[in-house]
From TrEMBL, chain A:
It comes from Bosea thiooxidans. This is Amino acid ABC transporter substrate-binding protein. Keywords: Signal. Residues 35-256 form the Solute-binding protein family 3/N-terminal domain. Residues 1-24 form the signal peptide. PANTHER family: ARGININE-BINDING EXTRACELLULAR PROTEIN ARTP, MEMBRANE-BOUND LYTIC MUREIN TRANSGLYCOSYLASE F. SUPFAM superfamilies: Periplasmic binding protein-like II.
From TrEMBL, chain B:
GO terms for biological process: amino acid transport. SUPFAM superfamilies: MetI-like. This is Amino acid ABC transporter permease. The lineage of its organism: Bacteria, Pseudomonadati, Pseudomonadota, Alphaproteobacteria, Hyphomicrobiales. Residues 20-209 form the ABC transmembrane type-1 domain. It is found in: Cell inner membrane; Cell membrane. It comes from Bosea thiooxidans. One of its GO terms (molecular function) is transmembrane transporter activity.
Automatic annotation (TrEMBL), chain C:
It comes from Bosea thiooxidans. Part of the binding-protein-dependent transport system for glutamine; probably responsible for the translocation of the substrate across the membrane. It holds the Pfam family BPD_transp_1. Coiled coil: none annotated. This is Amino acid ABC transporter permease. Keywords: Amino-acid transport, Cell membrane, Membrane, Transmembrane, Transmembrane helix, Transport.
Length: 263, 228, 232
């Protein structure tokens, strides 16, 4: 009897649960709230940074703003550092992560990734007077190569320059560039956008020949937010078709046109 | 050269000012709330109530033995995973709570040792005139003990002010965070910008330390005692 | 047991045990060496601060104020980039050496402050009695003042040591792979925040508790049970 009652209650609860879920999924939540909450990381131009006017901008940020406009909601940015991004999403503090995140198998096991928004090219950088011409020349024992802590750049060094010693900096890419420029490193690995920025800033650096990896970058949502994930995929399709994505990528990624507006 | 640095300072001033205000607010809330909580815990601990002493000791040891970063992380990211909705805080609330609790562990120890530093004879004399335990504490012991806490407490405040630099993990744009964002605009001047940030912290913290020194000379300071 | 795996999957942590061990070794090395060096430097600072010579005291007081009122993060960067420019032989130092240098310079003023308070708490009469017995200044320090001061200052020294141990986590900004870095690595590769951060917390708590135990042992051994009993 007791079992029967339990079953009955269970069924009722399940029905209510399903009904509730069908009524309000994460997309409804966003529309009802009138806010799209986006986790970003200010890791530097041109993906995500704060410009001279104090506004948050960059390729990933502008894409998120575009999405919010098309949805008719306000966009709210939450700025975390790299290690805070995924926990913030998992704890439900934000609806999605808009950062230069590679959808690795391990990450995809915990989150849902959209289709790639854009691609980044990982390159190596060295001092101007370094004998190295291409990134392969850095694959020598005794050389110290820098990358940001726990990044895919560090992975690239391990995989493609295994002879050299990897030095991981917890302080972000600017710290890596500073260490390289000050002669504490023989080379460093980061994405092309960031590196070009640093080469212009520090007079004594040069980009080495060869693209080490070409990585897809995608936005992430919680593992059970299928509606939002499909909405994002559809959005990529759509803005590819109407060339808005191309325009953004061209402006931020493939040229330095953004510099005179934002630097 | 000097002009370049001056231009950077001018360009960054509004952002650093905003960051400083954030640091100021968060640290003040942490210090005030943490001191109240810590005071309460310290007083209770000094009364040697069976059972409570061990429990509060564990509280203090856990908070002092683990990095603040980890505590902050647990408050902001892990507590919401328990599914209890009122434990799901925004970054401000989480920062305030975590900082206050962290502060309380240090304050509690200072208060407890200050109470212990008040000569036993005082309390005994108060018993002799027929005061109850609470009266003794309130009228005799605490007024003397509180004076002793001022100097060591200032040291803790300065430590707390500097600890707020970690709050960027949960999305608080305090002084260090603003500096780091600025460094991305001027990557070549990373050392200079960190120097400017250090100077701002110094301007905030140094008067507190001077005040502590002055108070210490006037009223003496409590020697922190063993925790258990 | 599955609810434990949901919340804290120790199987994943086990896969990273070697990284955590490497990190722990670096943390203990950095904290251990810095502790010894900063206590020694701290004694020196305490003696200078107690001396009556202003030309000696002023610069040291300025250094102490600078360290106490600025964040460690900045101090580490300054040592990492500034020291090689100042001392050419430091160019060949390892990252760990820079880390230890920065932590020592940071920790010594706090140690000095604690030791100064300890020395001041030794009654003046004892010092004078030792003088009367014909002890030299180093002898008075070594046999009369420092042992007592040390026993008195052990609890605050423990507190400062706990801070020092936790501060080693900042060395990751100059590429030292210490205990926190191992947790960050786990979180980055496997996206398991609970496993990462709880393991970090447990690791530091374990070190803290060992240090706490050792302090209590040292206190009893140093000053003897009679001294402790005579306390309060």
């Amino acid at each position: 009897m007791l079992n029967l009652r339990k079953t009955f209650l269970g069924v009722v609860a399940a029905c209510l649960g399903i009904a509730g879920a069908a009524k309000a999924d994460e997309m409804d939540e966003i529309l009802k709230r009138g806010e799209l909450r986006v986790a970003v990381q200010s890791q530097g131009a041109p993906v995500s940074f704060v410009n001279k006017k104090g506004e948050r901008t960059g390729l990933a940020v502008e894409l998120a703003k575009m999405m919010a406009t098309d949805l008719g909601v306000k966009v709210v940015f939450q700025d975390y550092d790299w290690k805070g991004l995924i926990p913030a999403l998992q704890a439900g503090k934000v609806d999605m992560i808009a950062a230069d995140m590679t959808p690795t198998p391990q990450r995809a096991a915990q989150l849902l990734f959209s289709r790639p928004m854009f691609y980044q090219e990982t390159v190596a950088v060295a001092l101007k007077d370094s004998p190295a011409k291409s990134f392969q020349d850095l694959n020598k024992s005794g050389l110290n190569l820098g990358a940001t802590q726990a990044s895919s750049y560090g992975e690239a060094i391990k995989r493609f320059m295994p002879q050299a010693t990897l030095k991981e900096f917890a302080g972000g890419t600017a710290a890596v560039a500073q260490a390289l420029s000050a002669g504490r490193l023989d080379g460093a690995v980061s994405d092309l956008g960031n590196v070009s920025n640093f080469v212009r800033e520090f007079g004594n650096l040069k980009i080495l020949d060869g693209v080490i990896t070409r990585e897809p970058l995608a936005f992430a949502v919680q593992a059970n937010h299928f509606h939002l994930k499909h909405w994002l995929d559809n959005y990529v399709e759509l803005i590819t078709a109407d060339r808005r994505l191309d325009k953004q990528v061209e402006y931020w990624w493939n040229s330095s046109a953004w510099e005179k507006d934002h630097k | 050269m000097v002009e370049r640095y001056w231009n950077i300072v001018v360009a960054l001033a509004p952002f650093l000012w905003k960051g400083f205000l954030e640091t100021l607010i968060v640290s003040l809330v942490g210090v005030v709330a943490g001191s109240l909580l810590g005071f309460l815990i310290g007083v209770i601990r000094s009364q040697r109530v069976a059972g409570l002493t061990g429990l509060l000791g564990a509280y203090i040891h856990c908070l002092r033995g683990t990095p603040f970063l980890v505590q902050l992380y647990l408050f902001y990211f892990v507590l919401p995973n328990t599914g209890i909705s009122w434990l799901s805080w925004d970054s401000r609330t989480a920062a305030f709570v975590a900082l206050s609790i962290y502060t309380s562990s240090y304050v509690a120890e200072i208060v407890a040792s200050a109470i212990d530093a008040v000569p036993v004879g005082q309390s005994e004399a108060a018993t002799a005139v027929g005061m109850t335990r609470l009266q003794r504490l309130w009228h005799v012991v605490l007024p003397q003990a509180l004076k002793l806490t001022v100097a060591p407490m200032s040291g803790v405040y300065v430590m707390i002010i500097k600890s707020t630099a970690i709050l960027s993990v949960v999305g608080i744009s305090e002084l260090t965070r603003q500096g780091e964002i600025a460094i991305l605009r001027y990557p070549r001047d990373i050392l200079f910008i960190y120097g400017v940030i250090a100077a701002i912290y110094f301007l905030y913290c140094y008067p507190v330390l001077r005040f502590a020194r002055w108070m210490e000379k006037r009223v003496g300071s409590a020697r922190p005692t063993e925790l258990d | 047991m599955s609810w434990i795996l949901d919340f804290y999957n120790y199987k994943i942590v086990a896969q990273y045990l070697d990284r955590f061990a490497t990190g722990m070794a670096a943390t203990l090395t950095a904290a251990g060496i810095s502790l010894v060096l900063s206590v020694l430097l701290g004694i020196l600072i305490a003696l200078v601060m107690l001396s009556k010579k202003a030309w000696l005291r002023r610069p040291v007081a300025a250094y102490v104020a600078f360290i106490r009122a600025t964040p460690l993060l900045v101090q580490i960067y300054l040592v990492y980039y500034g020291l090689p420019a100042l001392l050419p032989f430091a160019k060949s130092w390892s990252d760990m050496a820079f880390g230890v240098a920065a932590l020592t310079l940071n920790s010594a003023p706090y140690m000095g402050e604690i030791i100064r308070a300890g020395i001041e708490s030794v009654p003046r009469g004892q010092f004078e009695a030792a003088k009367g017995l014909g002890m030299t200044y180093p002898q008075r320090l070594r046999y009369v003042v420092l042992p007592q001061a040390f026993a008195i200052t052990l609890p605050p020294l423990l507190g400062q040591t706990a801070v020092l141990i936790k501060d080693t986590s900042l060395l990751s900004i100059i590429t030292v792979f210490e205990f926190t870095s191992a947790g960050i690595l786990l979180n980055s590769e496997r996206v398991r925040p609970n496993e990462s951060f709880l393991t970090i917390a447990l690791g530091y708590l374990a070190i803290y508790l060992v240090v706490l135990l050792l302090t209590n042992k040292a206190r009893a051994a140093l000053a003897g049970p009679a001294w402790n009993a005579g306390g309060r």
